[in-house]
């Protein structure tokens, strides 16, 4: 087993003096603060990036506002779609470079970086590009009384809200960044992206490709730094909308700050403690394979991934053994090694968090497999399965955002909605069954933004995605995103 060779352009990119992308150029910063970018596979620094100061924030928002009222406003809807499609072409053409940079920063498998960060980003961009010429209002006839023969007509317009602040997490920086870029640009907005301080490099490269595709200078800007930079963006008077993807505690603060700033629009795509319900007739091999694929993808660091599995009590031990058999011996190692199935966690804080959950698992439940960190450089842990003692165990209620699946037996299918809904979260849930009648009857009872049947986690650009309860507000994808990036203006005419 060995790592793939890094491309020369990847090595060259890592050697740059990294800061920000503002008003169409890769720029430096007056700030003295530097953030080390750590490769989670070995714990070593691969680059440094400058943190933004107040002057950088002002420059980025100012550039975005000028483009919103100028060059991007003057770009026709058709041409916006052409530019986004050209952007998708460039992502694919530079796909291996982007994938390697992302794997070096985030620790995700090189296969996953190629397939999702690159491949799916292009798919989503092309989908959004198709909406460019289809953002419409409607006409109507008012029922106002005519006093002297006058008549009335009315129509609505969808107008872009303005400058968007997009705050991107570390788990899928390219793909989630592209969602925010595409939604803003296709509706006529401009934006300032703030990547996670753990994974900033791919979005800087992406901004260069956007400029090459024809996105005007200032329409897309990238600012690096910690949470203070995000707070400055949220509070800025020229920021009309905030799109945040991340944890629930941070999301609550973002939402409150946005409302306090200027009743600023906000979309929050937050975490979840997502449930999977195995109904009595479930297919054991299919369900276990599907839940391993979706529960441990990117080491479980996926907001929509299943974390708690409800199993008919009579089959609990059988299911636990099937998980154990499938996971034991799975290759764990460098994410740049194409033969490896599980890579490292994305950063040191995430490793520390998982070690705390492992300690909880030893105290509260029965560990079927895993539950340990690997004694090697980097942030590696074992994929873990735990059987809970009761429905009150904290592992069934706290989001781990990691490679831990917790099983709990149940006796009566009528109790499943109560078990699944006993959570402050409501992002996703899944039902595993060949009994379509039972599945369809259960779906309306589950408090989740997305319910899957015999699958989990997968996203499609045509299907709206978002959470309820503490899992967020607003929707991505489909046509639903248009509501969050445009203002509805009504026009009434007397003639």
UniProtKB/TrEMBL annotation:
Q: Which residues form the Aldehyde dehydrogenase domain?
A: 29-491
UniProt keyword terms in alphabetical order: Oxidoreductase
GO MF entries: oxidoreductase activity, acting on the aldehyde or oxo group of donors, NAD or NADP as acceptor
User: What residues make up the catalytic site?
Assistant: 269
Task: Show the PROSITE patterns listed in the entry.
Answer: ALDEHYDE_DEHYDR_CYS, ALDEHYDE_DEHYDR_GLU
Protein origin, superkingdom: Bacteria
Q: Which one Pfam family would you cite for this protein?
A: Aldedh
Give a yes or no for keyword Oxidoreductase in this entry.
Answer: yes
Q: InterPro entries annotated for this entry?
A: Ald_DH/histidinol_DH, Ald_DH_C, Ald_DH_CS_CYS, Ald_DH_CS_GLU, Ald_DH_N, Aldehyde_DH_dom
Extract the Gene3D superfamilies matched here. Answer: Aldehyde Dehydrogenase, Chain A, domain 1 (3.40.605.10), Aldehyde Dehydrogenase, Chain A, domain 2 (3.40.309.10)
The family classification in the record reads: Belongs to the aldehyde dehydrogenase family.
List the protein's name. Answer: Aldehyde dehydrogenase family protein
According to its UniProt entry, this protein's organism is Ectopseudomonas oleovorans (Pseudomonas oleovorans)
* Higher taxonomy: Bacteria, Pseudomonadati, Pseudomonadota, Gammaproteobacteria, Pseudomonadales
